[in-house]
């Protein structure tokens, strides 16, 4: 069954008549709701009833953390369920009575977001240094060697981890990601190792931890530098024994997943400061990959901007282009938030722009107030030259293709190249 316009249905205590009518309305809009075993979609619609115990709801939805959940509930449940949103377990909420068209749009947006999370820019989009990094990642993808990825927040560490997974022999199995900085210590333990039914008050259902969820696949532990020290020993034991024991269980379950750890903090520095176990560090740090900040990869800014605008066009059917001024500003900006900030800036500008051309002002970038090193004409000329040379390089040195891509004649391109020599 195609994954287009299909979602998984979940309910703790069954569906009300109103909910079944809602599903019929969604079906009339083209949505399908296959059984769990047949459902390839990673978007779910969870119905919460007034009598449901919200702790159970949270446990059940958290146990399927790879799903993008949209919750339908009563208006008076929103405040209590908001914790699910803050923990990243729920993608969005709708309260009864539900507006069908709005819910359908939310489900469609969820599918688009999930598709975007799985898609990677082609390595040809990247600078020379990053292409070399992805070449190295591809070489190690066929092994089960542990990898540590270091780099600033938003620089593309998860993209790199997904690239390793997708080029490995484990690509058909799950890729599971857990942000160790996003959960309290007690929830991290539960997410890592899981629990059995009755392990603690309110544990009415068994819950598989991420080691079990990633069976046969890849487990990314993001921001592992924030993993509490008391849990690092338990984590090391799992790596050594290749098995995990759920809270409340005496049985060990074999672990079969490739471990990738990522952090914006240098783990070697944390070791010297006593914040990270040395034995765990050496266990994980077999291969070390360094992702530089976007400010150090300025050649990537414009290709990535075009990539994000192409994604926007595919999702919303609206194609936007960058003005010369906008391209100049993107290239010169310092990008403290790295690729994630670039993506957000482009999506915001594309959405708010009244025309098909995004102006520099619509990027809403705050540039530091510094004196210009050269007159504006010289800066524009330099930017133009850099853009032309980059287009030639990206087209394998073929100047004819570069001219067509830039929308100028061959004569103009040759003349401008001669001027730059």
From TrEMBL:
SMART domains named in the record: AAA
Occurrences of domain Sigma-54 factor interaction (ranges): 130-351
SUPFAM superfamilies from the UniProt entry: Homeodomain-like (SSF46689), P-loop containing nucleoside triphosphate hydrolases (SSF52540)
Pfam families, sorted: AAA_lid_14 (PF25601), HTH_8 (PF02954), Sigma54_activat (PF00158)
InterPro entries: AAA+_ATPase, AAA_lid_NorR, Homeodomain-like_sf, HTH_Fis, P-loop_NTPase, Sigma_54_int, Sigma_54_int_dom_CS
Transcription found in the keyword field: yes
Keywords: ATP-binding, Nucleotide-binding, Transcription, Transcription regulation
Protein name: Sigma-54 dependent transcriptional regulator
Source organism: Shewanella jiangmenensis
């Amino acid at each position: 069954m195609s994954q287009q316009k299909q979602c998984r249905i979940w309910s703790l205590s069954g569906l009300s008549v109103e909910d079944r009518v809602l599903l019929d309305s969604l079906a009339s809009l083209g949505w399908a709701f296959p059984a769990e075993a047949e459902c390839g979609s990673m978007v779910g619609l969870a119905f919460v009833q007034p009598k449901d115990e919200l702790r159970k709801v949270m446990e059940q939805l958290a146990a399927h953390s790879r799903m993008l959940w949209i919750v339908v509930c009563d208006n008076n449940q929103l405040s209590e369920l908001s914790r699910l949103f803050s923990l990243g377990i729920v993608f969005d909420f709708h309260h009864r009575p539900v507006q069908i068209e709005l819910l359908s749009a939310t489900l469609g947006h969820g599918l688009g977001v999930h598709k975007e999370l799985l898609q990677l820019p082609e390595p040809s989009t990247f600078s020379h240094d990053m292409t070399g990094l992805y070449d190295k990642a591809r070489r190690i993808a066929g092994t089960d060697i542990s990898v540590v990825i270091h780099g600033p927040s938003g620089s593309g560490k998860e993209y790199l981890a997904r690239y390793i997974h997708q080029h490995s022999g484990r690509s058909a199995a799950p890729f599971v990601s857990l942000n160790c900085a996003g959960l309290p210590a007690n929830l991290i333990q539960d997410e890592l190792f899981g629990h059995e039914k009755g392990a603690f008050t309110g544990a009415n259902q068994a819950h598989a931890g991420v080691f079990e969820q990633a069976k046969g696949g890849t487990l990314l532990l993001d921001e592992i530098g924030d993993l509490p020290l008391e849990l690092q020993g338990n984590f090391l034991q799992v790596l050594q024994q290749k098995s995990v024991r759920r809270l409340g269980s005496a049985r060990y379950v074999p672990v079969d997943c490739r471990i990738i750890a990522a952090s914006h903090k240098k783990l070697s520095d944390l070791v010297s400061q006593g914040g990270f176990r040395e034995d765990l560090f050496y266990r994980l740090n077999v291969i070390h990959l360094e992702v530089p900040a976007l400010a150090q990869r300025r050649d990537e800014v414009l290709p990535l901007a075009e990539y994000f605008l192409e994604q926007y066009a595919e999702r919303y059917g609206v194609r936007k282009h960058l003005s010369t001024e906008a391209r100049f500003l993107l290239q010169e900006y310092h990008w403290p938030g790295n690729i994630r900030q670039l993506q957000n800036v482009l999506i915001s500008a594309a959405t708010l722009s009244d025309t098909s051309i995004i102006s520099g002002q619509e990027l809403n970038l705050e540039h530091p107030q510094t004196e210009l090193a050269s007159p504006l004409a010289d800066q524009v000329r330099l930017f133009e030259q850099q853009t032309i040379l980059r287009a030639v390089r990206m087209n394998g040195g073929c100047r004819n293709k570069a001219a067509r891509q830039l929308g100028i004649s061959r004569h103009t391109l040759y003349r401008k190249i001669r001027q730059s020599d």
